[in-house]
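User: Could you check the structure of this?
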Amino acid sequence: MWFFGNLYEQVVWNPQLLADPRPGSLVGVFAAGSPIYYYLPWGPLGVVLAVVTRAPRPALGCLAVSVALKVLLITQVNPVFRDPAVSREVVHGHAVLWAFGNGVVVIAVGAAILLVLRARRGPSPG
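Assistant: Sure, the predicted C-alpha cells are below.
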C-alpha cells in the first residue's frame, strides 16, 4: 500500500503540482481528503511487519531511508503546499524537492519489497 501510494504521488499528483503550482492546494493535515488517512496506518505497519517478520537487513535499511525521507518531506515540504500565502515559484520549487525525495522513497520501498520477496523465496536452484 505504501509503495503504490507513493508511486501514485510520483506519477499523478506531483506532475499536476509541477504543471500548476497553486499555493494552498493541499488540504489540511486532518481535513477530508488528506493523504494522512491513507498513509498513517500503512507506512508504520509495513515497517513493523518487516521488523517482526525478520526482513533482511538491507530491506530494513531501505525502509529506514524511506521513513526518514518521508518524515522530512511531510514536515518540511508539505506545509508549503498548504500555505495560501506563498508564491507559485516557492510551491514549484518545493514540488521539485518533493519529486526527487519521493522518487527515492519509491525506489527504496520497491527495493525493500524485492529484497523481502527474494529472501522468502530462498536460494535459487542450481
